[in-house]
Amino acid sequence: MGFKQSIPNNSLFTKGKGHSFVALLVYVDDIVVASSDLEIVQEVKQQLNANFQIKDLGPLKYFLGLEVARQKKGIAVCQRKYALELLDDTGFTNSKPVHSPTVPSHKLSRNEGEPLADNTQYRRIIGRLLYLTITRPDISFATQQLSQFLDNPTHLHLQAAHRVLRYIKAAPGQGLFFPSSSDLQLKAFSDSDWGACVDTRKSVTGFCIFLGNALVSWKSKKQATVSKSSSEAEYRALAATTCEVQWLSYLLEDLAVNHASPATIYCDSKSAIAIAENPVFHERTKHIELDCHLVREKLSKGIIKLLHVGSANQLADTFTKAHCPSSFHTYTSKLGLINLYNPACGGISGQ
Q1: Position 168 in a domain
Q2: How many CB atoms lie within 10 A of CB 167?
Q3: 267 belongs to a structural domain
Q4: Count of domains in the chain?
Q5: 266, 190 in Cβ contact below 8 A?
Q6: Rounded-to-integer distance, Cα 235 and Cα 274, Å
Q7: 12: domain range?
Q8: For 154, which DSSP code?
């Protein structure tokens, strides 16, 4: 049919240019076709039907548990039905909601609490929470913390998982919002929490990446090795963010999107930025793996630029540590989340 398979994402196929551009996304036997020309979409569907006898479900409204709603202002994506099923299956439909998924005063540890006699329920909850993070970046850090104890969870870990469920109960319809009127500049926030893991003393990497005002990628993950300093931990987080920015740049090219270059990465560590900009700091960085220094390479090629941002405006902070409800809401309100099922504020839960 003339489609070209995308290298950054092998499930994506594209064809044409300008108004004749069409993208086709495949997951097993589920397919999404997107184009600005409806005639091209109909033509593609007819060709597919001639070979596979497809079932045309019409305009995209529901896909792999994702609920899609369109309006002139943009597109909203949530997993409300999936979240409600999760609450129902775990018995938390009528639970009392909480305003944050974690408790900042308590860090989870592997050897704390009594091991569960049957860890099946815990594993099932975490697995479903992981899938829910597709549209819920606000539970990414909490889910990352809980997923570390799948091999031997305790009753304290289960209690922490139940708190996340109670947080979801507060707004099961919350999800992502992609505004129709937005620039195409990639902006990223990179952060780390040095020595955050009480068991291994490894740091946590957190980043979130925006295309204009739309949040398109985020991560909360424990680093593979122990960092000697907070600067090193921040530098490793910068490397992870840079890799994701480069991948998104390739993906946007396949989608025929002319995004402004370079991408801006905001970091609240001046020392990490100095390491990236000044290769003279050999004594401080000679033990760091070579792949981390790709930050310098992409910086010199003009693919990224680094800017310092104050900790109060570091949006990735919510992906690296627990917060009290007030500060948690301050950070997440800037991620562009939306709750279509909250008519009291017109459906918008973030600025």
Answers
A1: yes
A2: 21
A3: yes
A4: 3
A5: yes
A6: 10
A7: 4-58
A8: B
Is residue 68 in some structural domain? no
Using one digit for the tens of pLDDT, what is the confidence trace for 175-196? 999 998 888 899 999 999 998 8
Mean pLDDT of the chain: 90
Are 223 and 129 in the same domain? no
Is the Cα torsion angle 198, 200, 203, 208 positive or negative in sign?
negative
Nearest one of 258, 76, 73, 262 to 184, comparing CA atoms: 258
With 60 as the cut, is the pLDDT of residue 349 above it? no
**Of all helices (H) and strands (E), which one includes residue 156?**
helix 155-170
The β-bridge partners of 235 are none
Q: Which of 289, 176, 313 is nearest to 226 (CA)?
A: 289
Closest among 139, 159, 137 to 149, alpha carbons compared? 159
For residue 81, give the nearest of 168, 177, 159 by alpha carbon: 168
**What is the mean pLDDT of the segment spanning 166-170?**
95
Judged against a pLDDT cut of 80, whether residue 348 lies above it is answered with no
Max distance between CA atoms of the chain, in angstroms, equals 64
DSSP H/E element including 300 = helix 294-300
Using CA atoms, how far residue 314 sits from 47, 143, 175, 190, 232, in Å, is 48, 20, 21, 8, 18
**If you search the block for the tokens 């439909």, which residue do you land on?**
93
Phi, psi for 265 (deg, rounded to 5) = -115, 120
pLDDT band at 280 (very low <50, low <70, confident <90, very high): low
pLDDT band at 283 (very low <50, low <70, confident <90, very high): low
| Phi, psi at 297, each rounded to 5° | -65, -50
Instruction: Tell me, yes or no, whether 324 lies in a domain.
Output: no
Q: What is the model's pTM?
A: 0.90
Determine contact, residues 69/76, Cβ cutoff 8 Å.
yes
Beta-ladder partners of 222? 204
> Angle CA(317)–CA(283)–CA(306) in degrees, nearest 5?
35
